Amino acid sequence: MAKIERFYNTFQPDHYDVFVNIDRGNKTINGKTTITGNASVPNIAINQKALHITSVQTADQELDFTTDDTAEAIRITLPQTGKVTFTITYDTKLTDSMMGIYPSYYEVNGEKKQIIGTQFETTFARQAFPCVDEPEAKATFSLAIKYDEHPGETIIANMPEDHVEGGIHYFKPTVRMSTYLVAFAFGELQSKITETKSGVKVGVFATKAHQPKELDFALDIAKRAIEFYEDFYQTPYPLPHSWQLALPDFSAGAMENWGLVTYREAYLLLDPDNTSLEMKQLVATVITHELAHQWFGDLVTMKWWDDLWLNESFANMMEYVAVDALQPDWHIWELFQTSEAPMALQRDATDGVQSVHVNVNNPAEIDALFDGAIVYAKGARMLVMVRALLGDKALREGLQNYFATHKYNNATGADLWKALGDASGLNIGKIMNSWLEQPGYPVVTAKVDENGDLTLSQQQFFVGNGHDEGRQWQIPLNSNYDVAPQIMADKSINLGNYQSLRESNGHPFRLNVGNNSHFIVKYDDTLLADILDHTDELDPITQRQLLQDLRLLAQGQQISYASLIPLMTKFKDSKSSIVNAELYQIANNLKMFAKPGSPAEQELRQFFDSLSKDQVARLGWMPQAGESNDDQLTRPYVLSASLYAHNADSIAKAHQIFMDYQDKLESLSADIRGFILKNEVQNYGSEPLFNKLVTAYQQTADASYKQDLRMAIPSTTDPTLVGKVVSYFEDANIVKPQDLRAWYRSLLINNAGQQAAWNWLRDEWQWLNDTVGGDMEFATFITVTAGIFHTTERLKEFKDFFEPKLDTPGLTREIKMDIKVIESKVALIEKEQDAVNEMIAKSLN
């Protein structure tokens, strides 16, 4: 297995002059890169990947070099050590891999067009120009770009354009930064530009396939976000502009290139007149996440990829801090509770999961680090714990000092803890290292013992089989009883006589108030009954947390899954969207206990109807003017449940709405459009309808509408049309590689399409590897599959296919974990199926 060489140890670059000449017609790149830096030895190495090197020279001589493709390197013999300048001339291909320099494809009025963009994170800058492609190798960059230009095209980069000479666009030198943040793009772009209070130009750029109004929302959020961050960090935005660019083809969600942030179109552009609140919140948090990085990640960068969390966890927390300040009416921290918290808790409970801080020994492992549930979501929860411990005053003071000390340089986690500890007087590093360096999290058991004392104990929590190594955490308990310590560092503690505590406090005992700490609570029967007797007094986050912790305990076989069913009835009329999100998470998990077509499935559909029918009646199908955010966000859960229930009125109502809008589907309210389309395909499907929706998918530039169609089309039950869906997977004119995973998942979750989707994945694995392999999302095709499979037959097939691939760098951990994920569900079903189905039947009587 290849080991990583750290080239920065022997050569430290100071400045790059990067010239590239891009010919879109012939798909070629010709380049010349001049590098100035310090060499501590005469034999140095520079990163390259798939570059054809034609010469390496100094001002007066050709230098000896060899190309080492295994190490992704050029090995150069220099005439002397110390300060050196040399020029590397090369050529390479313009590829469709969505890495390095690549084209994005789109259509305007039926005419095919392309724009060129870049994606250099993690290690793809070396595919564009030779460089020391390591985060610590910060330097300044002067870009000079020539291309087969035609009138009406725009070119943008990290820094403003300086001048054009001989068809070459020269850009001002960048500030000192890492290679993976270099970016540029060109093509027929439209834009809208504004300016912050401090004079930073802010712009949104997109292809002309979009309506100009689709740029407005992002422009407003981006401008206000930069103003917010300048104030919060007490550190000026250090560049003259901040461009936001929507790329039609983009493998990641977005990328924080300094001064030129790139996004999937779906995460930047939206129709202000017809986009759901949920989608607006998503777009706003993506923008604020990337702009948080302009300081945390760009100005100060992790020293090496093992501290990736330092970039991502912080940006993941700050996106919510920013949106909460910009749009307080959204109550955005509730979204944190329905997205980041459950995602982190679910994945972090599987034995073998990575810790937030991970050592990296192999190049392929770098991309595998980008585990959204751990490095992003769990890491963000860690930092929410820190914020709760410190308060914003000490947090801001610590961050200001952190930026002042490390700006334009690199840092480690220890540097952040030191800055925050100095500002707060707390030993933050000691507390947080138990979360940073260890995988998993604890369940805190709260019980009244045989002596009547209230005791707490911590133990690692697992869903499925787990090897308990006796790990302990420093747990911020956040209790509503003062007798509980701020931090629980011991394995167990005794809080004293429960009855005395209950009487003096006057309310039920609870832990993790606000659900900000990364642990779950198992209350004994006495304590749980007391809480459940007072649920009406609990805020929505607490109600949701209660259901979530019980669901996880049931999945971990610490309580019976059947015991959740009476509780669901108790919460079914909640007007809180976050309570409903958890309620229907539990409900949807019940589907794995009922075999398709069985009497148990029929009773489950009736149970879904009993949960949802009153809410459907209350909310109606069409959004209402002036309704609350909670009502807008709850409607999708209950409509989906009602359609799963085969509620005849709902099916007929959805069909009627479809008929009313059949000639203007794009104008149908985005809040409900996906369910209307899916219902039509499932219950009134035909080949002409199928073809009509596929054509609409190809022609629309509205990312929200595309998402709805992507949900509906693969839900067909017609075997011929299922075959057509599979045939689209490798047709980039219909399904772009960036959207392939979503199409695959939509077909896999469809009982009528699952076999075809699974066959395709196994048959076409090599094609998939060739098309999206090497990308940070490649392994998630495995994750998605494991998330749906739950039978002994599928487990065997999964193991038969993936176990031979266990030694594939970057896939090993994912395969091992996902086998355990399916095994845990198979074991749970075997143990609980009869009890769950009996409880569902009982609830209907």
TrEMBL record:
Q: Would you identify the family this protein belongs to, as annotated?
A: Belongs to the peptidase M1 family.
The record's comment on cofactor binding reads:
Binds 1 zinc ion per subunit.
What is the protein's given name? Aminopeptidase
For this protein, the record's InterPro entries field holds:
Aminopeptidase_N-like_N, Aminopeptidase_N-like_N_sf, ERAP1-like_C_dom, M1_APN-typ, Peptidase_M1, Peptidase_M1_aminopeptidases, Peptidase_M1_dom, Peptidase_M4/M1_CTD_sf
Query: Locate the ERAP1-like C-terminal domain: which residues?
Result: 511-823
User: Which keywords belong to this entry?
Assistant: Aminopeptidase, Hydrolase, Metal-binding, Metalloprotease, Protease, Zinc
Catalytic reactions of this protein: Release of an N-terminal amino acid, Xaa-|-Yaa- from a peptide, amide or arylamide. Xaa is preferably Ala, but may be most amino acids including Pro (slow action). When a terminal hydrophobic residue is followed by a prolyl residue, the two may be released as an intact Xaa-Pro dipeptide
Domain Aminopeptidase N-like N-terminal intervals: 12-181
Protein species of origin:
Limosilactobacillus walteri
Q: Residue limits of the Peptidase M1 membrane alanine aminopeptidase domain?
A: 217-435
Q: Which cofactor does it need?
A: Zn(2+)
Q: Which Gene3D superfamilies match?
A: 1.25.50.20, 2.60.40.1910, Neutral Protease Domain 2, tricorn interacting facor f3 domain
Q: What is its EC number?
A: 3.4.11.-
> Does the record carry Transcription as a key word?
no
| Pfam families for this protein | ERAP1_C (PF11838), Peptidase_M1 (PF01433), Peptidase_M1_N (PF17900)
